[in-house]
Design goal:
This protein is of the alpha+beta class. The chain contains 4 helices and 5 strands, in the order αβααββββα. It has a 3-stranded antiparallel β-sheet with strand order 1-3-2. Strands 4-5 form a two-stranded antiparallel ribbon. The chain starts with a helix and ends in a 10-residue tail after the last helix.
Length: about 140
């Protein structure tokens, strides 16, 4: 409760916020439970893909060329039964910041994502995580189980 109050009172601007959660296959969760570098890199893949999707959708707004996104991400390491269950909860500003007519930063709220937006983001994160694992020698051929 203290963390939520701190975010609301001192971190987030007064704009809508959406929660996005990245859940992962069990085998990857277990590996990430003890591999902090992999944990960090998978989290970065998720946030970069999410921000890219927000910026792509923001380009549909008239006159918006470049924009910035904002989020706070929490790594949750356990499930309800205290089982190893690494996953990410991201509190994401529900829009983008960009220079307004007065050249000062303004918040531009985006509409809720459509199903095809979520599907595109999911496919992109999956592809990038798979690529990350293969570059690290952790792909399916390294350990078929």
């Amino acid at each position: 409760a203290d963390t939520a109050a701190h975010l609301v009172d001192r971190v987030f601007p007064v704009v809508p916020v959406r929660q996005c959660v990245l859940s992962l296959p069990f085998a990857l969760r277990y590996r990430m439970a003890y591999d902090r570098h992999l944990n960090s890199d998978v989290g970065n893949v998720f946030i970069r893909a999410l921000f890219g999707e927000l910026r792509r959708r923001a380009k549909q707004l008239p006159g918006l060329r470049s924009s910035q996104c904002g989020a706070v991400t929490f790594v949750q390491r356990f499930g309800d039964a205290l089982n190893a269950n690494v996953h990410f909860h991201s509190m994401v500003l529900d829009g983008v910041n960009a220079a307004g007519a007065s050249h000062r930063p303004e918040f531009y709220r985006l509409l809720a994502p459509e199903d095809h937006d979520v599907l595109r983001l999911t496919a992109l994160v999956s592809e990038r995580v798979r690529s990350l694992l293969e570059r690290r020698g952790l792909g399916p051929e390294a350990d078929p189980h």
